[in-house]
Design brief:
mainly alpha, 80% helix
């Protein structure tokens, strides 16, 4: 006798679960149809294509500006060397070596 209430509870649960699944399926079907209609709308597609092109142009412009800034920031800006400054550095190095301040050979 205890088996019958258990069977009845199980049957009721399965019915309610089945109804819930049916409602969820209907909701999913309606939402899917709405999304398909939205995606296949020619006016919306045109607007989306225009927006994508606009974003592409903005991205290209931003990349060009960033490249220019990086180039300006990291490009070498050394002033031209004069020949006199090279000679004075060489003579200073030679003088330091003669005075014993330069490198010494190991034996």
């Amino acid at each position: 006798m205890a088996q019958q209430p258990w069977d009845q509870k199980l049957t009721e649960f399965l019915k309610s679960a089945g109804e819930e699944l049916r409602r969820t399926g209907e909701e999913l079907k309606a939402e899917t149809q709405r999304l398909i209609d939205e995606v296949t709308d020619p006016e919306l597609q045109t607007r989306m294509k225009q927006r994508i092109q606009q974003l592409g142009q903005m991205a290209k412009q931003t990349a060009a500006e960033a490249a220019a800034r990086v180039q300006a920031t990291f490009s070498p800006r050394r002033p031209p060397r004069s020949k006199t400054s090279r000679k004075s550095k060489k003579s200073t190095k030679r003088g330091a070596r003669k005075a014993g301040r330069g490198r010494t050979r190991r034996r």
